[in-house]
Design brief:
177 residues; alpha+beta; Aminopeptidase; 7 strands; 23% helix; globular
């Protein structure tokens, strides 16, 4: 006789757009990863809350986060880049698919914009390679370096920073007639 089917366990986490109530949780995650991320103030998190996705537990604890920013190529809107930022997962929640889930969800979220490419500056090279990103020379993203990295106080210059620049193709824009 077959045993009755057991109900599936509830998911350990859910990915969703961030709301203002998540701001302190996001901020705490970023601060806990300050050696590997660009630090954001709580005010900055709040101002950009619409750009964040979060991974939350059933009880509402924020255990992962990711944001994006658009980097326009001067004079060519069809070559706009999206940068993935503040990608982090609480250490106790790593190796459970949260990192992959939030990156893939953010990439899907960017599809309607038809960005030319998606970039990330990271120490987690193998992780992003598994998600289709490839290493690129930092000189290929000078607009990002001037806009963000030039103000970073962690390293003498973006070229002495050990973060690796990586990119993947975005979603092609529909043909215009």
């Amino acid at each position: 006789m077959n045993a009755p089917a057991q109900p599936a366990p509830p998911p350990a986490f859910t990915i969703r757009p961030a709301v203002f109530a998540d701001a302190r949780g996001i901020y705490g995650l970023i601060i806990d990863h300050c050696d590997r991320l660009v630090v954001r103030s709580l005010s900055n998190v709040i101002e950009h809350i619409d750009r964040f996705l979060v991974a939350v537990t059933p009880d509402g604890e924020v255990v992962g986060a990711i944001a994006y920013e658009f980097l326009a190529e001067f004079g060519d809107p069809l070559r706009t880049t999206a940068e993935l930022q503040s990608v982090c997962v609480k250490p106790a929640w790593r190796k459970q698919g949260i990192g992959r889930a939030i990156v893939e969800a953010q990439i899907r979220r960017l599809e309607p914009y038809c960005v030319w490419q998606i970039i990330v500056l990271t120490y987690e090279v193998e992780f992003f390679e598994r998600l289709g990103f490839e290493r690129i020379d930092k000189r290929q993203i000078m607009h990002k370096l001037y806009r963000g990295c030039a103000n970073c106080s962690k390293h003498e210059s973006p070229f002495t920073c050990p973060e690796v620049a990586m990119a993947r193709t975005g979603t092609p824009a529909p043909a215009q007639h």
